[in-house]
Amino acid sequence: MNCKTCGKTTWAGCGQHVASVKSSVPASQWCDGTHTQADPAAAASERGGIFARLFGR
């Protein structure tokens, strides 16, 4: 699963398999969850609106 803000690998769920996922992903590609307040807004503007995501534009 990719972080919606930075695009790096992250996880969702119970957390029981985090160690096995982390062992297969380089540390530089792992999202640590640390983002500035501006990062989510910038990521949202890059993704576009709901229609852009639905129709791939």
Task: Note down, in words, how this protein is organized.
With 57 residues, this protein is mostly helical. The protein has one domain (1-57). The protein has helices at residues 18-24, 38-47, 50-55. The two termini are 22 Å apart. The relative contact order is 0.18.
Task: List the topology elements.
Elements: H1 18-24, H2 38-47, H3 50-55
What are the salient characteristics of this protein?
57 residues; mainly alpha; globular
What's this model, at a glance?
With 57 residues, this protein is mostly helical.
Q: Which of globular, elongated, flat, extended, rod-shaped describes the shape? A: globular
Rounded Rg:
14 Å
Overall mean pLDDT stands at: 82
Helix content: 40-55%
Would you identify the regions where 5 or more consecutive residues have pLDDT less than 50? none
The amount of beta strand, in percent, is under 5%
How many domains? The number is: 1
Q: What about the largest sheet?
A: none
| Order of secondary-structure elements | HHH
Oligomer: single chain
Summed up, the helix count is: 3
Number of strands: 0
> N- to C-terminal separation?
22 Å
